[in-house]
Structure formats: C-alpha cells, structure tokens
Predict the 3D structure of the following.
Amino acid sequence: MLEKTRRSAVIFFVLVLLMSAMPSGCGNAANDSIAATVYGENIERKDIEDFLKLVCLYMPDSEEAYSQEGYAELLEERALWYLIESKIVEHEVKRLGLEVDEQKVEQEFLSVKDELVKDVYGSEEDYLARLDELEIGEDSIKNFHRKTLFTELLYEHVSEDISEEEARSYVEENPQFLEKPAQVYAFHILLEDEEKAFDVLELLQEGADFAEVGREHSVDDYVELGLISSHDGFDPAFLEAAFELEPGEISRPVETAFGFHIIKITEKEDAGVFAFEDVKEFVVARLKGESLEKYLQELMEKADIETFEKTNE
C-alpha cells in the first residue's frame, strides 16, 4: 500500500512525476553543471542525479526503467521541476518564519531506514551495501524527509483556517460526495481460457474451497479483492456480474480483456447516502489539498526561476 510508511512519499512522488505536466518553455544557454537557479540558489545536475539515486534506493525496480534513454530524460526533467518546487517551498517556509522540527526529521529517517532494512533489503548489511553502490549517504534520506516536512509546514499554514462550515458548504454545492455506492466483498479466480474456467467452476460446485482453488489455479495472485464499489474501475462486465450475485453465490465464467473470471461475494451493501459527518474529514482534507495546490501554483508563477539547457554530447 502506498500509504503504508514514509517510504511511500518517494513512491508517490514518482507516480505523480510521471503523470504530471511540466511548466512549458525552453531553458537558457547550456550549462553542464547547473540545471537551474531559484532565487539565486543553484540546483546542480548532481542534485538531480542524487535525487534519482534516492528513488532507486527506495524503489530498486525503478533503476532498470531509468536506464532507458527516453524515459531517463523525461524523469530527469520532471525531477528537476520537483527540486525547483522544493526550493520554492523552502524559501516560502523561511520567509514565513516556520521551522522544521529536527527531532521529527530524525524520527522520520529512523522509521524509513527500519522499513528499508526489513522490507526492501532484508538486512542492514545489504542496505548499507546498496548505499555504497549508489554512492549516497544516509544524509540524503534525512534531507529528503526534511523537504517533505517543509511542505507539511506550508500545508498546515495555508489550510489552518479551513472550517467545517466551508466543508459543509462545499458538500451542498457538490452533493455527489454524499452518494454512497453499492459495495460487495469480492473474490475471483482468473483463468486464461474458457474451458479451464468451466473445469475450475465444476470443482467449486462440487464443494472445493474457493480460496484454495484460487491459489492453485488463478493466474492473478490476488484471489481476495476485498471491498469493491460499483464506481470502481473494474471491467464493466466484471462489475455487472459481481453485483448480480448474492452473498455466498459463485458466478459462471465472466470474460474480460484479462481472461475468464469466476467471482464469489461474501458481503453486499446497497447504494445509499452518507451523512455529512461520514465525509467531513475527507472533504476538509480535499479543501486543504486544493488550498495548498493553489498556493504552490501562485508561488511558482511569481518565483525567480532560471533553467539551463544541457549540452548534447
């Protein structure tokens, strides 16, 4: 899950990085060492390289993609604009007189280090070896989380005055936030061809355990899909079949672009309406996010930014 730990901050950044648009316009005269200046402070090309090394530390699988020429150039440019925005945020935080809690930076670092050691590299020895391989130090991790805390400080400053009444007015203007979609708790077994799907269905009809059969035969490792809603982005044929079932029922094979699904649901809840209290926290967070986004856009528009093209070798 992206929200699992602080490591997700980098993962989320990479996903957003690849989908977001960069400011338009050409750079100035070529400069092989400096990529940009923000309020007179340099962002060196080495800063971009170091940041992308950090991405590779957090997401080892990304290194192969980064090695592809077209992808690498795109990622470098988007990383540059991320670093530019970080400089602008830091400049604004200092202008406002806000201060990062260094104890919190240390706590964030220790938390993410613990996850990297346990969940990514398996041992501290392998984690340290990876740092040596990438030629970066633990200060790089601390600095990254310090920058994320700058953004958190600005978020808190910009959004501190957003009230429950504003959230209530927003919901009144956007009543779709009170719509509660139908939901089912779903399992599925995915097979490559219809004949195999009917063979598996026969096993289930004879009383075989759905989860055990799924683990043995499904080409999708995720047999238990969990709670899904009628608004989720599943194939329409899949959703239609799932919501026609009653708890405990098993579908006939359902064809989608992925193959043939056998679906089972264990819980079902009809569509309804949320109370404001049910969505208040989500709506307030949304308004705060929109407030920060608008504030950042205004900062970017008025910031003193100069970018430099890289010499083609």
Notes: The two ends are 41 Å apart (CA to CA). Residues 53 and 134 are 6 Å apart (CA to CA). Residues 69-95 form the longest helix (27 residues). The domain at 8-163+286-307 is CATH 1.10.4030.10 (Triger factor/SurA peptide-binding fold).
